[in-house]
Fold each of these.
Amino acid sequence: MMLDPSDPLWEWSVFWHSDQLQSCLPDTSAAGDQSLQATWRAFFDALPTGAEVLDLGTGNGGLATQAVAVSKTRAKPFVIHGVDLADIAPAQFVSSAKDLLTEVVFHARTSMEKLPFPDEQFDAVASQYAIEYTNTETSLTEALRVLKAGGHFRFLVHADDGVLKQRCRLQAGQAEQILNSDLFVATGTLLRRLIDAETIRTAEKIAEAEQAIAMSKAVFDDLEKRFAHDEDRSLVDNLLTAIRTLPGMRRSHSMQTLAAMLEEIRHLLLAQSKRLKAMQNAAVDNAAASELVNFLRGLGGAQVELEAAKTGRDSDCVGHWLSGTKAAKAGDV
Ligand SMILES: C[S@@+](CC[C@H](N)C(=O)[O-])C[C@H]1O[C@@H](n2cnc3c(N)ncnc32)[C@H](O)[C@@H]1O
């Protein structure tokens, strides 16, 4: 089923309707991934047994399931909620971590700026690459409202000078160039003319098919040339591979089905392009990160700290950590 592009956060709903547990994290660096995981593990480890935990902008529950893994070591498990404004349904779409996902109470189509929880419900509020996509004045006010006095918060946000933003910028440019190219029109024409030539078999139809093959080859060659020296070609390679498989399917699929598959690929690329742009816009520079710290202090945050999030062998910057507690009583700040 194709989701409606006019829905709020359509680009994220499309992403979470695929078999992905999480987004954004550096996919090439297992070591880097583990160092972020270690920080999250320490955060959840420090919580009291039976703690209530909230994951803001949970997506398919990548962070919430890390809380579940820690919870499973406790005599009394945590109660873990995850909210997201997108149309999430992790149990339906994610094939990994099934046993962990069932332990999370997911709230789809739920805004961080208007949380459906009473004041001071949670012992901990966490978020990974999500609060920076929102109106932070409203979402952080909500986050601290639902946090108990003495409760802990930890947020990971995109950094303006981080490697994830660099990769997003590159991929957003690639997606835009592909969407503006003749790739989809040329592929649609190629499929139609190949099928026509094989069905009608006149010299004219065969000549038209040959023309379409030449046109399609020129479009592919041009795209390959444009991206030949790009450091990260994963988006381009995945997309071109998906499109190249379509002509080979024409004997087992109707033109109508192939056209729908081509449109689905274009739809996914449009969503990806929108997501990559949103991520670039969300990234926070050092000055804005310091403003978030001050804002959290103003809301009653105590021991509020700002640290660079680094990963991998090269200590790549992958964000800012914002952490602290909610002052137990006035004067604790
Ligand atoms: C970069 S993803 C991070 C997802 C997840 N935390 C992870 O690490 O995989 C950002 C998420 O924030 C969600 N989001 C953006 N704005 C939101 C809002 N105002 N309220 C709730 N969720 C929002 C998006 O739908 C998306 O799932």
Amino acid sequence: MSRFRPEDDLWRFFWGALTTRALALAADLGVADALADRARHVDELAAEAGADADTLRRILRALASEGVFAEDSPGVFRNTPMSEALRRGGGLDDFAHLFGGAWHRAAGGLTATERATFPEIHGTDFWSWLADRPDERAAFDRAMGTGRQWKVERASAVEWRGDETVVDVGGGNGALLIELLRQRPGLRGIVFDLPETTRDESAFGDRIEFAAGSFFERVPPADAYILSTILHDWDDVDAARILRTIHEAAPVGARLVVIDAVIPSGNEPHGAKWLDLLMLALFGGRERDQEQWRTLLEHSGFEPVRVEDGLIEGVCR
Ligand SMILES: C[S@@+](CC[C@H](N)C(=O)[O-])C[C@H]1O[C@@H](n2cnc3c(N)ncnc32)[C@H](O)[C@@H]1O
């Protein structure tokens, strides 16, 4: 049972947008790294970061009221476990930057229509916006890398034959395929994505190659195709177009491995219920329930063989 009155819960939701923005400001200013070794006065932090000291104190004080940083004496802040998680390089700092930056503005424009708001607010679609901003593209690719572990666990749950060629369609920086092939020495892999993704190909090893292209045009032929958090970026029409591109390249019997949420029915909390709204704002995309996944696969030439949260498998007919 909530320890707050219903009104208090609502107030926490109301200022959630401010929390998101304050987290981005703290992450962008590198406050968690500046506090890595010791507590420090906000005047010093602000001078180093080029911020206004009074404003930075107000931002940190608000965050500290939620357990992100702590103010031990007036103006002196230290890290807490939550603010530690915002240190550079962990990926959550990049998520803080995205959620409280370009995504925040897109979410702020959300309406009860099927329209993506990102293109209206930023003047172009999200992928083109990233292509024009290498720093944002790198932040996005690092952020995606933070989900690597659960994605690898889902991909490992597949019964791989052992000698297959696997294409990671929209594989980003290759983090998932690198880890999967480390665990499965018989597999070979191709990371397929837009050319502007940031990646360290020296980490790929000799069994993985990168192929640039658009999944609306063609994908390489292979025995299996992974789509990790790809289809939720697209509405049903475009998701089916991606699956049909794969279907054209895939031999009968080829496997489709989709790593995406399956929205449960009922009122249980599930991150995908909120991610669904972000997908709508950014791309006009959506999270899907059991029924919607089955329909999408069946209408695109694949027989669904497993539909569970985080892992949807199909076979090319
Ligand atoms: C949400 S990210 C997922 C990245 C990676 N699969 C993962 O699980 O971390 C979506 C990926 O789709 C890629 N993408 C977007 N449009 C694409 C297109 N037309 N063709 C190929 N890849 C595309 C993006 O560059 C990005 O890397």
Amino acid sequence: MSRAEVLTDQILERIKGQDVRVKREEILKRMKLLIEEFKVPESEAVRTITSYLVREYGVSREELMERESPLVRISEITKPNQWVSLKAKVVQLWDSNSPNVSQVGLIGDETGIIKFVIWTRAEMPEVQEGRSYLFKNVVTDSFQGRMQVNVNRTSKIVEIDEDIELPPREIQVVGAIISFQQNSGLIKRCGECGRVLIKGVCQVHGKVEGYDDLRIKAVLDDGESVYEIILNEGNIAGLTGIDLQKALEIAKENLDRNAVLNELRNRLLGRYFRVKGLRGGRYLLVEEIEHHKPSVSEFDHILEALA
Ligand SMILES: [Zn+2]
């Protein structure tokens, strides 16, 4: 069976029991057109055809949603294009570089952590870090070999009054910071939503005044894996003694906000750190970070090697 046929049968399976007189041929024709001719992603094709059936054949969207998106745990998400619901806590929000993305970040439950994307056109209320939600009827997806969930127009996000535990397994990594990513150092955030301003512009609220903050997005390499990490003002101050106040002074003295970034690069890039945190894919949620100094025995090794 072709993918178009598989997906067509999945749609038919979902509307089974509803009194709908649509022919398999008709759905298949549309499916082929979308995924073979127009190369539309499968999940998008399924959504488009589902909307068509709702519109033209009176298929009940509510019934579809109940049936097709079982409540799952994050560890059970292993395949793309599944409609699922999950209860999860927002553990980290990232900056989005695309106007099509309203929010992006990581959510977690007891079984794992996964990336999520809320599309702008989904028109969802914003989620907040540290709060727990029922993410209803979201679509699993695979991006660059990693699973994620997408929130689209047919999804629902409902805040829940449960404090969801994150996976108990912490990892500890010793590695070097090998690069800084964009928008690190002394940054400005939107006063309305906290998003990082790019050239004074919030992607949602446009040109705004904003407030100062200090953060670093970096890549840590432990020799086996690379991890993306985010350091907040507290982490940075702990490692370098440079807090927001000090950073603003450095910027002022040099008449250049980039002077802060240069200073942080000098102090952190290429250095070794011990990081404790939670792992989600290639991301490491930093709980603690400290300088790693080679122990005496490690020095002995080095001396022996030199002798
Ligand atoms: Zn904003």
